[in-house]
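Work through what follows:
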Amino acid sequence: GKHTLNLDNKVADVTVKPFTLEMGIGFELHVTISGEKINISEIPELLIPEDWMRDKLELNFYKSEQGGGGEVENVNYDKRSRTAVITFLRPG
């Protein structure tokens, strides 16, 4: 539908149109688990910004029942070595 937005005393007419999202990217990770941290190696090289990869890794392990996930404190991702260390707030 059509909508009118007021932006800084200016009016903009906008139209909402559906669009198709690209399919997600699947990949395999090699994981070593301790109670507090997960070491990940052989992360595939994807054509996405580094902060997106950090977000993907965090979401994958946040409160994940498989793989010993939980509330994530930090994601240390190194694109060059294709590794990451995820640190949790509480040991799993």
Summary: The first strand starts at residue 2 and ends at 7.
